[in-house]
TrEMBL record:
Pfam families: Ion_trans. It comes from Caenorhabditis japonica. Residues 15-90 form the Ion transport domain. One of its GO terms (cellular component) is dendrite membrane. The lineage of its organism: Eukaryota, Metazoa, Ecdysozoa, Nematoda, Chromadorea. This is Ion_trans domain-containing protein.
Amino acid sequence: MNSIYVGKMATRAHPSFFYVELLSNIWFSGEFLTRMIFCPNVATFLKTPVNIIDFIATISFYIDWALDRTLSGSNRDSVEFFSIIRILRLSS
């Protein structure tokens, strides 16, 4: 019986994409904080599903960025989870 080996190669996006994403997340973080500061009730604001998703998607970028700078090699696979979480923002 023949075996099939599927190897995974590490890929990196062009550095320009990182800077576009960084600027977008900085802008979005500022917008989120502004909405939170000026809302009438912060507790209600933080409990709405859209804002929970926005917060998780935003914080996952910064966690992914920090872990990417500290981890390498096979440990990098565990960080991909945070990249997937950011996709939730697209559905909200």
